[in-house]
What we know:
The chain is α+β, with helices and mostly antiparallel strands.
Amino acid sequence: MRALRILLIVVVVLGGLFVLADRLAVHFAEGEAADKLRTSENLASTPDVSIKGFPFLTQVAGGSLDDVEVGIKSYQADTGNGGEPIRIDDLKASMKGVRFTSGFGSATASTARGTASITYDQLLKAAKSQPTDLGFGLTARVVSLADGGNGKIKVGVSAAGLPTVFVLSSMSVEGDTVRVHADSLPSIGGVRIGENQVRSVTDFEQKIDDLPGGIRLDTVVPAKNGVEITVKGSGVRLAG
Length: 240
């Protein structure tokens, strides 16, 4: 009985040491991966990297991690054609099947899915900031964006000297571009204006490109404080 007790104690101690070593190793690896990601994506601050699954050391031995979660507080995405970048907030992505090289010099996920948000102020940059000539002595421009409820975005249009009018619009994603399309057209100043002219103000699009690791836009939905987006990708680079 004494020998059995001693054996059990040894097993418990060794198990505890293994768990400790495993957690120390995963903590070190998370730090290395976060530093590599910050450098490769030129981020302003170090992202959060969390390696899931236990034990970590057996995953390392196999050269692949089951699940890695990445969090980036703020990311400046490219809008194309030398335009002003658009800020994406709270980007969180789950990377599956991450293959890596020694020291995390490079790491690539087989698939990735995630969420993020864009404030209405940021998206408003995409609407024409300069007034558009509608004819009849009228110029108009988009002056506000807000949640319209039921999956719609509310677009505020102002014409010089006239009250702001609002139109509910639908949002969609086509490739790397978010599109805003008015469901119905507002009357501006009581003047009958051609549809194409009105849509030249109410309808607009925003390209969002060069997201981290090559992930791409999937869906976009209006919410209280901004639009919520989902992203996805395959062969997504965490580093290298």
